Amino acid sequence: VQAPVFQVLPYHPRRAVILVTGSEIKKGLIQDGFSPILIEKLAPYPVAVERVEEVGDVPEDIEQAIRSAILDGIDLVLCTGGMSVDPDDHTPAAIRSSGAEIITYGAPVFPGAMFMLGYFANGACVMGLPGGVIVGKRTVLNLVLPRVMANQRLTKSDFAGMAVGGLLS
Predict the structure, then answer these.
(1) DSSP annotation string for 86-136
(2) Which of 46, 51, 90, 164 has the fewest CB atoms nearer than 10 Å to its CB?
């Protein structure tokens, strides 16, 4: 029996939380421009955004917000910003310490090269979304989100396979 050439997998409804990082936003110095655009990008999918939380830049606060969302039964946690290699960007470290199994921190796709993906033991997913996700019309999120919505668990090999033609237009 030969495997099918391709399969069409159904999307599965997800409950999501958007965690907005950045002390400037939490302090009210600048307005959150990330989450409204992210909510627009999620609109074509069966995703119920249950809440948007401004969590600041303290690693323990970000980690606690991720863990709290998972304990609340959220199965898609989206962390916005703080994903670069700057010393004051703490989102990647907080995602790592949240208990998620990290699949990738970095993707061979632009825009969105500093993307992070992890899974929890219960199947919930956490993504660290770099600024490129809101700047570009098509980004790494366009490659990852449909597969996550179809309950596919991405691997390091999946991300390595994105290296061919990873520049999106």
Answers:
(1) STT--HHHHHHHTT-EEEEE--S-BS-TT-EEEE-TTS-EEEEE-THHHHS
(2) 164
Backbone angles phi, psi at 157, to 5 degrees: -65, -35
Q: What is the C-alpha to C-alpha distance for residues 29 and 17, in angstroms, rounded to an integer?
A: 23
Q: What Cα–Cα distance (Å) separates residue 36 from each residue in 82, 94, 116, 138?
A: 17, 23, 20, 16
SS3 call for 52: strand
For 161, the 3-state DSSP assignment is helix
Evaluate the omega torsion of the peptide bond into residue 4 and state whether it is cis, within 30 degrees of 0.
Answer: no
pLDDT digits (tens, 9 = 90+) for 71-99: 999 999 999 988 887 777 899 999 999 99
Its pTM stands at 0.93
